[in-house]
Amino acid sequence: MKRLVLTLLVCAALCSIAPSAMADMINFNSSTAADGTLTTPYSWATVDNFDSGRPGWTYNGGAITSGSDAGNYAAPYLDITQYYTVNSPSLKTDITATVFFGGAEYNYLGLYWGSVDAYNTIEFLNGTDVIATYSGSYIAPPANGDQSSSATNRYVNFLNMQDFDGIRITSTTPAFEFDNLAVGVVPVPVPGAVLLGIIGLGIAGRKLRKFA
Ligand SMILES: [Ca+2]
Ligand SMILES: [Ca+2]
Asked: Which of 39, 51, 56, 130 could bridge to 33 as Cys pair (CB 3.0-4.6 Å)?
């Protein structure tokens, strides 16, 4: 009985850790979309592929394009579909663009980030507050903008972020290109399932000790 009480206390402590208190996490996992591009591996995320069935978010400052134009924009590696570009002079885009996700708050963002450059930056916004900033050189050092390297053309996932409702994309030199922008809320484990798992481990441990 003492052991069960202890187990319940441990579970209560674990279950009380809010996702927002966890350190943010970045990974480069991806799946392949029907159009052949790298996209989010998470089925619970909503994706804008800049081609069809778009979610209707609010974009300002950049432009949708496809293909490449030297010195202005370059398609993410092997991406023959439409994507979004920021600071591409021939398209008259701004140095900075914003995306707002319809008023909802999320803690996950993913994007197929093409030709990552040291001068590319993503800021996570909540209203007018900047809650996190990541540079290209942090994500894919040395972030030299190589247009065909898998190191500088990768799907990037930001998980368990502080809640955000928009992002600001900056590229002080051409350009910041991305496709398959995704947002979502990271699912949290169901406390009951966690409790059952811990109790199950305890029972299994007792059985193993009996045979030891
Ligand atoms: Ca696309
Ligand atoms: Ca680039």
From this structure: 39
